[in-house]
Each structure stands twice: as C-alpha cells, then as structure tokens.
Amino acid sequence: MQFQLSGQQIEITQALRDRATSKLDRLTHLDDKILSLSIVLSIDKLQQCAEGTLTVKGATLHAEAKEMDMYASIDALIDKLTHQLRKHREKVNDKHQREVREERQYG
User: Fold this and answer.
1) How many domains does the chain have?
2) Which of 25, 77, 91, 101 is close enough to 50 for a disulfide, judged by CB 3.0 to 4.6 Å?
3) What is the pLDDT along the chain (107 residues), one digit of tens a residue?
4) Which residue range forms the structural domain that includes residue 37?
5) Phi, psi (5° rounding) for residue 98?
C-alpha cells in the first residue's frame, strides 16, 4: 500500500507522522487490498483539518475531519474512512452473495 502524508502550510512533524501510521493498522485489518492512502493536513483559522483519500479495488473513498486538535482530526478521519470501508466491503460481499444465490437458483 502506498501511503502519503502531506501538509498545507503546516510542517509534518515526526509525532504527526507516527500518529497517522499507527492508525493504518485499523484500515489494513479490514481490507488487505488497499491500493493507496493520501492524507493532507491543514489549518483553517482555528480548525485543524485532516483530509484523506483511500483507494481500494473498485472504489475511491474520501473523508474530511475538522477538530480543535490535529491528533483528534487524524483520529476522526481514520474513523470515517474505516466506516466507509466497512460499508464498501459489505456492499461488495452482498453483491457477490446475491450473484451466487441467483446462480444456484437459476443455474
């Protein structure tokens, strides 16, 4: 999996990089076919923003989180991406199971 962490008008410290990479296990645990993850950190007035794009086979998932703390933003972003990835996996599995049922029924 390719992982990219960048910042807009903010320096990416080692602590921020460590926090983001430590949270990757939650995503890779759900789906080992993740192609890439790109996270952009920025500051918008008093809000700390984390924006992420997750690419998996068959879909591109995008989420954004704004909190008062950058670490909380990263956590919220990963939570949102995890939720989206779960929904995507359920949708793919349901479709596959429906196709198998129809094949058995009509085949």
Assistant:
1) 1
2) 77
3) 899 999 998 999 999 999 999 998 888 888 888 999 999 999 988 899 999 999 998 899 999 999 999 999 999 999 999 999 999 988 887 776 777 777 777 75
4) 2-106
5) -65, -40
